[in-house]
Amino acid sequence: MKIKYLIVSVFLIGVAFTACEYTPFEPVVVEIEGDVDFEADVEPIFSDAGCTGCHNGGLNPNLTAGNAFQSLTSEAKYTDLNEPNNIYEKARPGNSHPANYSPEQAAIVLKWIEQYNAEN
Fold this sequence. Notes:
Elements: H1 2-18, H2 38-48, H3 68-73, H4 87-91, H5 103-119
Helix pairs in contact: 2-5
């Protein structure tokens, strides 16, 4: 009987150790060529990624079509890459925010922020 418990214990310990494999998250790097247009390229991302479910005028920033640009550019914290709550960091892949961008969407948003900051 003791041998049976020993065999079962060794088996369970072996299963436990093999189940504890860690694969680190490797972010997907996406390069965006050319300029990004806010209305054509960025604004649709907010509805596609599910942002407008909450950010529809009742919760800042308002990310609905026609309102997103004014809402995002009225406060520097949304477009300042040094701020932890900028629109790129808040919903980038792997973040805990309820709605997240795909890697491609994140690259477009980041490119627009960089472009906007360079122009202003």
